[in-house]
Amino acid sequence: xxxxxxxxxxxxxxxxxxxxxxxxxxxxxxxxxxxxxxxxxxxxxxxxxxxxxxxxxxxxxxxxxxxxxxxxxxxxxxxxxxxxxxxxxxxxxxxxxxxxxxxxxxxxxxxxxxxxxxxxxxxxxxxxxxxxxxxxxxxxxxxxxxxxxxxxxxxxxxxxxxxxxxxxxxxxxxxxxxxxxxxxxxxxxxxxxxxxxxxxxxxxxxxxxxxxxxxxxxxxxxxxxxxxxxxxxxxxxxxxxxxxxxxxxxxxxxxxxxxxxxxxxxxxxxxxxxxxxxxxxxxxxxxxxxxxxxxxxxxxxxxxxxxxxxxxxxxxxxxxxxxxxxxxxxxxxxxxxxxxxxxxxxxxxxxxxxxxxxxxxxxxxxxxxxxxxxxxxxxxxxxxxxxxxxxxxxxxxxxxxxxxxxxxxxxxxxxxxxxxxxxxxxxxxxxxxxxxxxxxxxxxxxxxxxxxxxxxxxxxxxxxxxxxxxxxxxxxx
Length: 477
Ligand code: 4AD
Ligand code: MG
Description:
Low-confidence stretches: none
Number of helices: 14
Bound molecules: 4-amino-1,4-dioxobutan-2-aminium adenosine-5'-monophosphate, magnesium ion
Number of strands: 16
Distance between the termini: 36 Å
CATH architecture of the largest domain: 2-Layer Sandwich
Number of domains: 2
CATH class of the largest domain: Alpha Beta
Strand content: 15-25%
Shape: globular
């Protein structure tokens, strides 16, 4: 018999049809009610059994976590809380789950405990909701770009160039690290390595995406990126996914318009398509907020926050204006910031970004025109020769969610920048070629996918929005 999905049956009004479902037991109450979940929806389906019709040894094996196949009749539910239920005719135990050992009991577990059981945590309501929303957000992202004339480009994971110039890369090598071949100067001889050169995992697909934008016009990448930065925060992963659109002939204003339109579209998509999961996470969010001290509490629910971002223009502010605001802010004057802002040129920390968004403007903010020397080499230099056409989108509770820029399209300016930063021009010969042959202004940005999922689900730690987080000292699973 065809297997039905629980989501399909819960919506069905075809009563008295014979159905078969397969899933995992969430609870089994009073030897009578099995709550079964198959992942197709947040909701369980109630399966009602008449225990006299079943063998006692079989009933004992219906434990939380066990996999069952259930055949029965779909009927209108007598109880409250659900529209339909299944009157069970036959139960097959597909896989037992020892109740004394199974870690995911039907009670509240701490997120820390669940992180240690990341292979099983997706069997909880919270994680299944988060991961379904993660999946829907991915779909919405592809849909947005496809509807707007972008091509999806697969940029390499293994690379010889450090796009962000931060030197935070994981090496890729097949050399025996205990016995590396040496050059005459005593350095590691990478010509003997697998690729014949020094290679790493990519921190960004941008540089390669730029070359594709200069032919296909509008492109985007959506892939894993890797950063060996030793930041143990609730917003940093060593392996994360990034979405990077790149558009020929776009300037910084068009880049900001794109970022804003794009983010609003994908958030609208989940509000329309992920109602059950979002309702659940909204309740969870409100519960979590209640346990916080009053001043730290959000004045909006999760759903209100999502709607707020969709309904409001992102406030566009130059770095210079932001520095003035921060310098004169209460936490700066009272030395409440960990990093006090004294002068123009200071790099902004997440405490400053969050102050601007949460306290000052009270809406998403796009900061632009940053000092050249705190940003990457490829950003377009402004007339003032001090600032570059960079933009960061800052979100409440998250801080930076997008980083992007208009790119330096002038070969001589770019070359000088590369020289000043001591980057080996030879490594970037192909990148420089795009400035030699039909160069044109262009712009793009990177959206940190996990930070977006954090915002969309209200989860406060980035480790809880990716199936298997990689962070310093942690690569289990
Ligand atoms: O600001 P970033 O470093 O920008 C770039 O990599 C550019 N090449 C993007 C481009 O213009 N095509 O990173 C972009 C975004 C950040 O705004 C943040 O959301 C996310 O990526 N991000 C991280 N997310 C999780 N863990 C980390 N360690 C992250 N580092 C950056
Ligand atoms: Mg950035």
